[in-house]
Amino acid sequence: MSLFHFLTLSLLFLVLILLVPLPSEDSIMDNSSDRQNGSTFLYFAYGSNLLKERLQLKNPSATVYCVAKLKDYKLVFGNHKGLASQRWRGGVTTIEHSPGDEVWGVVWRMNMSDLESLDRQENVKMGTYSPVEVNVSASRQDLSCRTYIMNSCVYAPPSPQYLQVRSPALFIENAGRLSKGNQDGLKLRKARDTLHNFSSAIRSLHVTL
């Protein structure tokens, strides 16, 4: 794994540790009922759609359901047929089958009315990504979720937008506000220290992709 991939994957994982809440028991029951009657679906995001602001821009119903991991897959960067978009100017995320690996992400609960919009965002009709159903493991249950896998992926270095991360400062600030008595305090303080190191490493790269 390259340094670019390691830094980016680690930052995405720390986003999940520091910023994504776990659902309450009542929330789990309500969401299960909604899925059974077909009014909502679960979407497993692992890349840029970890960002609430990006996802909700065209999919306003999206709400965080939980953090989860997808077993026997790995996160990779690339472009559909090797063609980088003018917007991203580098590799974007997808997943591929890889026994023994795992991908961490966020499960979003969304209204069925946003399904078409989500497919559009992932360029399904253009053939860039295909929707698939995957089973992910959350802290309290296994979940069936929709996610997307790139077609005809050609590996490429990550887009500069994945590397030019200003968010670590926010994660560090949030971690610093937590009580030292919190049962997860040690883990979060380690995450904070690690983010400092990642931020410094990214600034020192000075690499134009």
From TrEMBL:
Per UniProt, the keywords (alphabetical) are: Lyase, Signal
Give the positions the UniProt entry annotates as the active site: 122
- Record keyword Transport present: no
Keyword Signal recorded? yes
What are the protein's GO molecular function terms? gamma-glutamylcyclotransferase activity
Which CDD domains has this protein been placed in?
A: GGCT_like
Q: Which InterPro entries match?
A: G-Glutamylcylcotransferase, GGCT-like, GGCT-like_sf
UniProt binding sites for substrate: 43-48, 162
- UniProt signal peptide: 1-19
Q: What is this protein called?
A: Gamma-glutamylcyclotransferase b
UniProt source species: Sinocyclocheilus rhinocerous
